[in-house]
Each structure stands twice: as C-alpha cells, then as structure tokens.
Amino acid sequence: MSIKKIRMGMIGGGKGAFIGEVHRMAAALDGGIEFCCGALSADPDKAVTSGEALSLPADRIYGSYQEMILSESQLPDHQRIHFISIVTPNFAHFEPAMMALENGFHVVLEKPISFSLEEALLLQEKVKQTGLLICLTHTYSGYPMVIQARQLIADGKLGKIRKIMVEYPQGWLSTRIENDTPLAAWRTDPEKAGQSGCMGDIGTHAAHLAEYVSGLKITKLCADLHVFVDGRRLEDDGNILLRFDNDARGVLSASQVAAGEENALKLRIYGEHGGIEWNQQEPNTLLVKWLDAPVQIYRAGQGYLADAAKSNIRLPAGHPEGYIEAFANIYRNFSATLQHMSNGQEPDANMQDFPTVEDGVRGMQFIDTVLHSSRSDQKWTDF
Amino acid sequence: MSIKKIRMGMIGGGKGAFIGEVHRMAAALDGGIEFCCGALSADPDKAVTSGEALSLPADRIYGSYQEMILSESQLPDHQRIHFISIVTPNFAHFEPAMMALENGFHVVLEKPISFSLEEALLLQEKVKQTGLLICLTHTYSGYPMVIQARQLIADGKLGKIRKIMVEYPQGWLSTRIENDTPLAAWRTDPEKAGQSGCMGDIGTHAAHLAEYVSGLKITKLCADLHVFVDGRRLEDDGNILLRFDNDARGVLSASQVAAGEENALKLRIYGEHGGIEWNQQEPNTLLVKWLDAPVQIYRAGQGYLADAAKSNIRLPAGHPEGYIEAFANIYRNFSATLQHMSNGQEPDANMQDFPTVEDGVRGMQFIDTVLHSSRSDQKWTDF
Amino acid sequence: MSIKKIRMGMIGGGKGAFIGEVHRMAAALDGGIEFCCGALSADPDKAVTSGEALSLPADRIYGSYQEMILSESQLPDHQRIHFISIVTPNFAHFEPAMMALENGFHVVLEKPISFSLEEALLLQEKVKQTGLLICLTHTYSGYPMVIQARQLIADGKLGKIRKIMVEYPQGWLSTRIENDTPLAAWRTDPEKAGQSGCMGDIGTHAAHLAEYVSGLKITKLCADLHVFVDGRRLEDDGNILLRFDNDARGVLSASQVAAGEENALKLRIYGEHGGIEWNQQEPNTLLVKWLDAPVQIYRAGQGYLADAAKSNIRLPAGHPEGYIEAFANIYRNFSATLQHMSNGQEPDANMQDFPTVEDGVRGMQFIDTVLHSSRSDQKWTDF
Amino acid sequence: MSIKKIRMGMIGGGKGAFIGEVHRMAAALDGGIEFCCGALSADPDKAVTSGEALSLPADRIYGSYQEMILSESQLPDHQRIHFISIVTPNFAHFEPAMMALENGFHVVLEKPISFSLEEALLLQEKVKQTGLLICLTHTYSGYPMVIQARQLIADGKLGKIRKIMVEYPQGWLSTRIENDTPLAAWRTDPEKAGQSGCMGDIGTHAAHLAEYVSGLKITKLCADLHVFVDGRRLEDDGNILLRFDNDARGVLSASQVAAGEENALKLRIYGEHGGIEWNQQEPNTLLVKWLDAPVQIYRAGQGYLADAAKSNIRLPAGHPEGYIEAFANIYRNFSATLQHMSNGQEPDANMQDFPTVEDGVRGMQFIDTVLHSSRSDQKWTDF
User: Fold this and answer.
1) At residue B330, does pLDDT exceed 60?
2) Count of CA atoms in the C-beta half-sphere (13 A) of A140
3) C325 in D contact zone (CB under 8 Å)
4) Which GO terms describe its molecular function (chains A, B, C, D) (predicted)?
5) Closest Cβ–Cβ partner in C224, C237, C291 for B259
6) Can you tell me the ipTM of this complex?
7) Which residue ranges form the domains of chain D, and what is each CATH number?
8) C318 touches chain D (CB under 8 A)
C-alpha cells in the first residue's frame, strides 16, 4: 500500500519561536504531512512543555535532538518520521542536519543553510553520499507569481535579460532592539548568526530570488555593507552591484534599517522585449511590462497562468494567498517528492521545484563573496 | 485534564468541491482542530474515496450524514467529534444542521445559512433550545484589518457614521458557464441555491460586512436586481440603496457579471471626522482617511493595531496573510470558544467574535427584503 | 490671411476666484488663445484691480459685463474677441451668456449651464438661432484616458454594456465651512447655486462622464439625497440607481461629506467582454479588464492609444498631465473649432469633441429629475 | 512703474522639437511671462516658419541666435527681453548661453548645462562676473511633493539620513531607434550629447534630486555603466553605489533600456525615524513612512503641507498637477525672482528655489566622476 501522509519531526521551534510556528502551519495546511515528534528546545523542560502545548504524544516529545534522531530511527517503518525540520538559529543547523542525514532522515532547513560555507559543503557531500534530500526554505520562490515570472522568462517572452533589480528593505532593526528582542538578538550576534547580518538574513533571499527567476547566475559583484546602529556587530545594510553570466547587470539592495519598511522584497527583471515586477507584500500580482503594449497585471488564480504556477495555487483569483501558503508550497512539493520516492515513482518537475542543498551552498558562497568584496578596494570580486 | 484539540467532522466537501477544501485547510492551519470523520458526499462511493484520499480512518468515513451523526453520537467522550462543518450547497444545509444540533453537535455552516428564512428561524430556535453553537463562515469578518476598522469606528474615531459604500463585483458568471461548471451550476439553480443568485451568494457577505464594521443596522432598502445572462434563472447583478438605523445612507452593489473582476469586495465607511477603506484583494492594508490630516495606511502585523485585530494575526508586518488565514481565524475563534466551554471557562470577547445563527437569520431576512424590494414599485422596503 | 490666435474675454474670475484662474491657465497653456479683456468682477473696483494684476490693457478692463459686451462688439474684426468665458456662480450664468450670444460672441460656460432648466432651454434656443457655440467645461471629458475609454467602448471592445458605476466623493464640506469660505458659501446657497448642492456641483459631472464614455443615455433613476451637515440648505450627499437606454444598470454616488476624500471621481463600466476603470486622481492610467486575460494598464502618451486620445496629449508617456491640461484640451478643441469656422474650414471630429449647450440642457434635466425622484415615494422617475 | 510681465526669447525649439514646446507651455501657464521672440532653429527657414506658427511678430523672428541676441540688446528697456531659454541639444548650449550673458540677458538652460565640465565652469565664471542668472531646468525639483519631502528632512523629521535609493528607469531606447527618431539620435551621439548617454540625460536628474531632497552631497561613488543595444555609442544603462557626506549610503540606477518603463523616476530616503518615497509618475503623492506608526499619504493641495510646497501648487487637493506644472514652477520662481530684482526687491526664499549654474556645474562633475569610475578597477572614485 502506498504511503499517504508524510511524517515530520521538528528540531527547535519551541514556545516563543516565530519561524518554527510558520513551519508547522505550512506543513499542516494541505493535510499531507503529519507532525509526529519534536525536540523543540535545547532546554529539555521547555522542549517538553512546548511539545505538550502542541499535543504531541508524550513518548515522542524529546529533550534533545540527539535523543529524537536515535529514538525515531529505531521505530518501525510505518511509524518512523520521514523528515526532520530544523528551525534553530544558524549556528545550530549543521550538527542536527548532519546527524539526521546520517540516520536516514531527509531534512528541511531554514536559510542560510549553515554557519559557514565549510559546513554547507559537508552537508552537500553528505547529501550526495546518502541520496537523501535537504529542502531549504527560501520561502519566496514558493510564491506562484514568482514561478509564473520564472516561466515567462524561461519561455523567452522577455528576450535576453539585461537588467535585474532586487531589493529587500526592512526597517525593524532601525534601533538597537537586540537587547530586548530574542528574534533580533541572535540575528545580530556573530556567534549565532555567522559573519553576516543583513546579507545572511535577507540578502541571501534576494540573491536566490534573482537567480531563481532569471535563470542566470551572478558571476561577480561589488558590495558596500555598513552598520548603521551604534554598537551593532553585524552589518544592517548593504548595496551590491551585480554582473550575471549572460552579461546582464544588476543591483541588490538590502536593509534592516529602512525605517518604515516592513518586508518589502521586490524583484524587477528587464529583457529586450519587456520586464516583470513582483512585490512580496502584494504577492498575488505580477506586473508584466511590454515594450510597445500595455502593461499586464497577471493575477494568481487566473486560468491564463502557466501550469508551474497553477500547481502552487489553492484558490480562485481574488482570494489572496500569502506567506504561509508560499511556505506550504515548498513543504507540499518536498513532501510530494518524498511520497513519490517512497512509492518508487518519479516526482514530476513541478513537485521538485523546491530549493535544495545546492541553493544552500550557493547562499553561503554569496555571503562569503559579499563580505570579501565589502572589505576590498577592488571594484569586482568574482563569485 | 483539559481538552487540547477540538475534533471536527465534515458533511459535504468531497472530491472536486472548492469550499470544503478551504474549510479543511482553515481548520488545519493552527493545529488546534483534528479532522476526524466525514460524510463527504451524498454519493456513498464518492464519500468513501474522498475520505480515503484525505487519510480519514476507514471506520469514520461515512456514506451519509445521517450515519455519521448517529455513529459519532455513540462514541465515547474522548473520541466523539465536537462539531460538524456542513459545506453542502444551500438546499442541503438545514436537515444535517438540525440533526447535528439534535444530537449534541455544534455546527459550522456556510452562508447563506439555509434555503429559506423559515429554515433559518427553526435553526435559531434549536440553537436556543440546545445551548449549542452555530458558527457561520462569513469569512470576510475574519480578516484582521476588518476587525481593526470595526474597532476604530466603535472607538468613535470617525465620529458619527454618515455614509457606507460596499461593493462586491465578480466577473466569473459573465457568460453562461453553468452548464459546464459545477460551482456555477448550483449557484444559478433556484432548486439548489434558493430564490436569489448574486445577492444570496455574495450580497449577503457585503451586507454582513457593512453592518459588522459599522456597528449599524440596515433599516430600509431599495433594490434593483437584474439577470444579464440569457437563460439564467437567478439574478446575477444588483444595486441597492441603503438606509441605516442612525440615518446613515449607503449603497450596496454586487455583481457576478462585472467582467474582468475577480473577488473585489470593498468597503468604505465615512463618518464626521474621517473614513475607512478596505479591499479584500489587498486585505492586509486598511486606509484610514482624515478630514484635515494625511491618509494613514494601517497594515496587518504592526504594533499599533488594536488587540482585537492583533489576536487574529499570525505573522509580522509585511508577511501577507490571506483568505485561508481569515477563514482560519473564524475556525480558531470558534474552536477556542468550544474549548473554553468544554473546560468550563468563559471565552474572552475576541474569541467569541465569529458570526453565529443570528447573522444567519439576518442574512436570510436581507435576501427576502431585497427580493421584495426589487419586485416593488415603492421606493423603500423596510428591513 | 487666416486667423492665428483666437481672442478671449472673461466675465467673472477676479481676485480670489478659483475657477477663473483655471480657465485662464487652460486657455494660455497651448499658445493659441489670447486673453484680451475682462469684466472680472461684479464690483467695478475689483474688476479693475483684477484686470491690472493680469496685465490686461487698461482700455479693455471693463467694470461690467454689459459694458464689455457692448464695447467689444464695436471693435474691428481683427481686434474683437471671438468668445467670452463666463466663470461666475451659477445664478449669474444666464444673462451674460444670453447677451454675449445676442451680440455675436461664442461662449464658454462653467457647468451647470444655468440656474434653472428654463434658462438652459432658452440658451439652447438662442444657440440654434445664432449658429454660435456654447462650450461647457465638463473638464473630466477632456482627459485623454477618458476619451480612450470612450473609444474602446465605441469600437465594441467591451461588447454590450451591462453595468456602470460612477462615484464622486469629496470631503471638503464635511463641516459647516460655508460661513468662512466663499467657494463653499455660494455652492450651498440656493439663491446662488440653484435647487441642488452636491448633485448640481459634482453629480452632473459624474452623470455626464458616464453618458459620455458609455455612449448610453440614462432613462430612469431612483435618487436618495440627504443633507448631513446641520443647517446646510442644499443636499451634500446622494446615491442614485440608474437605468440606461440599452437596459444597462448603474449606480451614481456623489458626496461632499465623504471625509478624507479629495476629488475622487471614478468611473467603471462593464460590458459582456470586459470593463474599464478610470480614476480622476490618477488620470493618466486607464485599467482595461478582460474576461479571460490579464488586466491591461493603458497609459497616456503611449503609441497604442486611439487617435482621439492622442490628439489630447502633449507629452510622452510617463510625463504626467493633469487637470489643467484636461481643461486646456477643451479650450484647445473649442478654439480650434472656432479657428476652422473663421477660416471657412470644417473642424475635424476630434476637435469638435467638447461639451456643448446640449450637454448643458441635459445636465439641468438631470438635476431636475434627481430632485423629483428624491422627493418621490415611487421607485423610478423617468429622465 | 513696476514691471508686470517678464519677457522671454527662445533659442531652439522649432517644429518637431519636444522640450522647446514644454518650455513654452511652462512659461505661458501662469500668465507672468510673455514670449516675445525666437531663433527657433539653426536652419533659418525653419526658424521663420516655426516663429510664424507660434504667432511671433515678424520682426522678432530671427534666423540665428547671434542675430537675436544682438538685435534684442538694441531694443529699448520696455521691449527688450529679460531672459533667453536655450533648448538646443547639449553641444549647442554653451555658445548661445555665453553670448546671452555677455549681452545682458539672463538664461534658462536645459540640463546637462553643457557639453563638457570646462564649459560649465566658464559659464559659472561668467555668471559671477555679470551678476546675471542661469536657471537650469531640473524639472523634478519643481514638483511640490518633492519640495515637501525636502522640507520634512530639513526639519529633521526623519532624523539623520542613512540610506538613499534613487532610480530612473526608462525603456524607450530598448531598441536602436536612433536611426529614425531625432529625439533619440542626438542623445546617443557623442558629438551632440557629450561623453555620456543615460547618465547625462537622466542620471543627472536622479543625482540632483537625491541631493536636493536630502540636503546631502555625494562624496564618492562606484559606477557600472553599460551599452546594451548593439551599435550604440553611449551607455544606455548604469548602476552606481553612492556615499554621502554624512556617511549615508545609496544606490542610483538609471536605464534607457528598462523595457516597458516610461519615465519612472523614484526617490526613497530613509533616516533614523522614518522614510519618504516619491514617484514622478504619481507626483501628487508623497509617502511618509514611520518607524512605529502608520505610513502617511501626503497629497498635493492639502492644508497640512509646508509653505514651501504650497507656494508651488495651483489647485485644491485631488486636482492633479503634472510635469508641465512642475516645469512652470521653475519658470514662475525664476521669473518672479527676475521681477523682484528688476524692481529692486529681495526675492523670497521660496521664489529662489530653482536650480542654478552651481547645479549645472555639479551635474557635469557628476558625469565626469561616473565616467571615470566606470572605467576604473578601483572601487571608489571621489566626487
């Protein structure tokens, strides 16, 4: 009999965590994933109370990720989880991910994939060895209108791509809130977040989005990073000139101190015949601009969309889907792929459209390259 | 020990149904509701295959709603479902709802609550008798920025309300698709939808929204309904002049033949000092207009919102929530209320903010009044 | 030799007047009209100082309109003005207009054309007798994207028109400013404005726009007018159900007490195949909506526009034109028509696209019908 | 007696010219400037027919700018023009401007002020010597909401400025239209436009706007320019990292090959407490963003604006003004300044708010610095 529900465990995401809750909602939304067990906090007591609050069965609430991985690997096939979502801060990605892979579990990881590029390369190696999957939650590539944009470009509708402008302004770190706000504390702490602040946290999303939609690769860049808030240890703003492998030019700008901005990730790509514009805060709309014809407003849920976009939409046009649904698309595609693999079927191309360990390695390389460029007097640093 | 998860059964919503799937996603999103059983189709075979596809346990997939209600009522307390979501077409609301109430189950119902006003009044009576709850899924009042608007008005920020403009243009029935499209077929069939098309389907949402946000009641109205598509049996468009109990004036316009529109429910309310504007297609934004000061853009997720709005938001500002989340708010508030009732606690005011049987009765009265007015030569019909 | 510049005189529009200044800017913009003389105020002293401030030659600054009309009619052909712009309050339209026509001058008039329907009919009669022109400044039909919308509909692109929604919310009369504000004082005074406030002032614009763009005529209506501000003598708000001569339905809503609104005239028209949406506050954009294709954003200045629109645009796309330019289009078309007439040429169709005495008569009939309907208990009043 | 109208002559701007016509409309709009004479083309025949078409008196239609300057300088005071607008291509700015200044005429010049920085410095020197004025038509700083933004920042409302993002995407040169399109031909020809294409034409506007509104100066930059269209001789795209004198960071991006864009100049500035956003294509709106309060929509024509903005607005809120009006503000302020100077009065600060020769020199330095940076391997080039 074929597997119906894919079973998930979680590491991190206990009380007060933001992104762990998002992962759980995303996994729950479509009814294809069962949340079975968790090691929800590094603090064993908090792990237990968090697990109880989520109605996990008592015997599958674990006090540590090691315990969880070992115990779950002993369970019979029809009970054992298929994958583990790791939603800890960056510094605590690598070890649980590696242990999960070594014990036969697929992994879902928050971006950036690891604390350092070295760790990312080791994870990549392990994925190759084991044949298991890492799914990286670059949420924004789960939005259907992003996928529609990618399809238009892949189909050549815009002609050769010339210019890419991607920006990600946030304002929430405009003042020194890291002393009071746990979410801000680890993100601004080089011991926990890694060497980069703004670029690691959101710049990587912007870079991934630009490459994902355009189908191009950044080949060199010129970065100007800065810490605006006194006493902060990691950069909270940066602007980067980009060059792509087809000689397209671009700009990536990201900020955590753009006071008054929320989460205004925006992508514009221009080719010979037209351009696209997508704004995460109104994600169900894609502007498609043409050289000599009216701009078109593509909208989620419409019949004229590409199949690749449609397969990531749940509702008719005019019924807005948002961030959780985009997140859920990644979970849904990942879990459908696992289901097909379990059943010995070949997953289709749309299902397999989720970010993987390769995107994770590329993200870490991006961070390294940006940091190198920012410290350099030379204009261009190769990526 | 207190109950943790609230248990749900479903009537209707089998393969191919749209709204049943939305109910399931909404119920699943927040992890507090367990979907336990279903009589998912009037066709027993389809009921079974639909239940299997959703991984329901075989012994709780029922071939008819009668069987489900009777069987579930025999189960022990810790297994028995707490409520039943009825997601059938309008003509099939009343009987299962009545039987559910008679057997001790709370009910979630799609709007309009019933096929006729008489049925609605009988349900209201039964709710009074049993002390059970009917939750009516007027989704749009589940959006946090709608709740924020209501709060601003309740707090007197706009002064006395003078004018209300509510519109609900859709275009999907611009041609005679009812022959090919099941969703359209029953909505345009008086045997299944009731005496009203456009007004029953979406006009009731608009009227509910206007009254919910303004805190006012429509006291009389003047309606002009029309069937534009040849051969259609129920009105597909209507415009209505409104008068409210504080002498405010208004217009309600709804259409299913506004070609090119999606689901563009929009509410504007003006008082002595300012106005609000909310558009369902960009639901995380609320415009607040002032007589002598700049318009303000209120946004979901911001710290300055009222608690009543905040308690219906899951994500930080700039991470869009949509239709499913609004729907889930209604499920979450309803199930939290049930949980509190089960545990002998008093639910708080925000939890109880979901539409009930009273809203259902009012909706049916609205439909009756509109139909009467549309046939009348008199300007005003009392509501 | 052919005439190059058309010569204009003005009645009203002295110091402190708003609309007179707009007329002068509109006439000056394109360099084809020479402002030669004026009787700029009913107060002879103010008439003189106003004329001097505008650098009019001393001998063509007149103390009364009668003096101006008589004196100018004595001047030789190459000096005498061709037309007179009358920019006085409504009650002072008729007499100068009639005298101007009787003395051989074409006339530009602000809407509403007169104080009463009777006056309008007399002006219409006089126009027929004399062969002279009245140009009525329904500014909004001078916007190029309005003309583009009209053309799309005339060309049948939207199919048969079904629904028209036109709204004109303003908020400036939300409080009783008429005691301090001359602009408000006469508009709310039945001795000066006529029997209607909001509908005469802005409702007529909305009705004209709806008919102009759709090419349809209102055949019956049902109006609900109201005075919201205590002590005000003319209605400051109204909502009207409309029926058109092709059986299309519609709503017209106008308000001067929509607190926080500026001048938000907006028109939406839906036909069988699609719809248009135009908003005066962003006048260079026209949304064109289609049943099964993406919404298109038509923009002023683009090459794909109709000739009728292009001939009313001065700048390339992306260089916004506004209210004064729309006003100037009416002046430009009117003066080009006069020029052609003077030179014995036939003006082309686009030139002749300015509102005339017929529109003025229709506007007065609209006001009368609305007032009658608002007082009636019958649903429909024939127009 | 004090002068009432300021008298203008024009060099360039004959038939088919775009910007000359804009200058004439801008000068005519407010009635304070009289267009008296012209040398409208380098081709004497075209100069004459162009002058006749504009109804200039025959004796003040000149066949060359030299003739015009000499003849006009012989006229008596009450006839002689006060200033000359030079609207020729860049290569033909310097000589007529210099000759005009030498003969006692003030000058209005299109940007960039000259063909080379050397010429700009010579003009600056001549202005100092003569006490005459050069007014440079950086149109965009004539928009009232730009001035409002400048005022908010000058008043410290945003706190210390941290980040400036200015972009100017156009798409009109996406293909090689320069062979057919005179407007494109000279702009892409280094013999006529100078060493820079995109940056000289529109990048200078963006840089001026950023500095004008922020009150800051660019101190170093890092530019990446590119020619996208095969065979084009001047860059048609560029991205630039910016640093400002208070250590703020920024990005300037300009393009003539952003296919589907019109004239989408946009400025965003972020400070410690909030940010502003202004978009030229919707110029009557200014978004003002705050760290912990709702975004505000400032609108032209509202009573809450600063006096500096109000003095550049003609119409009540909701009556859109556009590009010509912004242009006219520069003409109005410049001519009011001349009027005051002629009458021996001190012009007030708002009147004097028009770009001058200093802005022209800075613009040429900007172009030189950008070109140098683009060719350099070093990251930063001092400005």
Assistant:
1) yes
2) 31
3) yes
4) nucleotide binding
5) C291
6) 0.96
7) 6-136 (3.40.50.720), 145-315+362-382 (3.30.360.10)
8) yes
* Average of per-residue pLDDT across A322-327: 98
A239 at interface of D, judged by CB pairs closer than 8 A: yes
Fill in the amino acid letter for D164: I
Across the interface, whether the CB atoms of C260 and B275 are under 8 A apart is answered yes
Q: Specify whether the CB–CB gap between C258 and B163 falls below 8 A.
A: yes
Helix, coil or strand: residue D229: coil
For residue C383, pLDDT over 80 is answered with yes
Looking at per-residue pLDDT, the higher value among C69 and C342 belongs to C69
Residue D299 at interface with chain C, using a CB cutoff of 8 Å: yes
**Mean model confidence pLDDT for chain B:** 96
Residue A52: predicted pLDDT: 95
How high is the pLDDT of residue C16?
A: 82
Distance, CA of C25 to CA of C22 (rounded, Å): 5
The residues of chain D scoring below 70 in pLDDT are 1-3
pLDDT tens digit sequence for A172-192: 999 999 999 988 999 999 999
Token pair in block for residue B314: 């899951």
- B2-44 pLDDT per residue, tens: 567 999 999 999 988 889 999 999 999 999 999 999 999 999 9
Contacts of B275 in chain C (CB under 8 A): 171, 258-261
How sure is the predictor about A102, in pLDDT bands with cuts at 50, 70 and 90?
very high
* Residue type (1 letter), B294: P
- pLDDT of D1: 42
Q: Using the beta-carbon criterion (under 8 Å), do B250 and C239 form an inter-chain contact?
A: yes
Is D320 in contact with C31 (Cβ distance < 8 A)?
no
Of D251, D260, D270, the CB nearest to A274: D260
Q: Does A177 touch chain B (CB under 8 A)?
A: no
Smallest Cβ–Cβ distance between C298 and the set A288, A294, A304 belongs to A294
Residue carrying the six token digits 């920020």: B157
How far does CA A167 lie from the centroid of its chain?
Answer: 16
- Please indicate if any CB of chain D lies within 8 Å of the CB of B317: no
pLDDT at B183: 87
State whether residue D51 sits within 8 Å of chain C by CB.
Answer: no
Integer angstrom CA distances of residue A280 from A56, A209, B164 = 33, 11, 31
Pairing of strands B83-86, B6-11: parallel
* Mean pLDDT of the residues in chain C: 96
Q: What integer pLDDT is reported at residue D3 of this predicted model?
A: 64
- Residue C22 to residue D315, Cβ atoms within 8 A: yes
D160 vs chain C: nearest CA distance in angstroms?
31
Are the beta carbons of C294 and A304 separated by less than 8 Å? yes
Burial of A343 (0-12, 13-18, 19+ CB in 10 A): exposed
CA distance D63 to D57: 13
Rounded average pLDDT over C318-347? 95
Would you call B346 helix, strand, or coil by DSSP? coil
Phi, psi of A61 (to 5 degrees): -100, 115
Residues with Cβ within 8 Å of residue A283, at least 6 apart in sequence: A143, A145, A146, A300, A321, A322, A323, A326, B320
How far apart CA C334 and CA C316 sit, in angstroms, is: 23
* Cα B80 from Cα B9, distance rounded (Å): 9
Residues facing residue A226 across a β-bridge: A237
Check D29 against C30: CB less than 8 A apart.
Answer: no
Chains that touch A (3 or more CB pairs under 8 A): B, C, D
Contact between residue B309 and residue B145 where contact means Cβ atoms under 8 Å apart: yes
D290 close contact with B: CB closer than 8 A: no
Contact call for B226 and C237, based on CB within 8 A: no
C-beta atoms of A228 and D162 within 8 A: yes
Which of C169, C174, C274 has its CB closest to that of B259? C274
C47 contacts C38 by C-beta, under 8 angstroms: yes
At A3 the pLDDT is 64
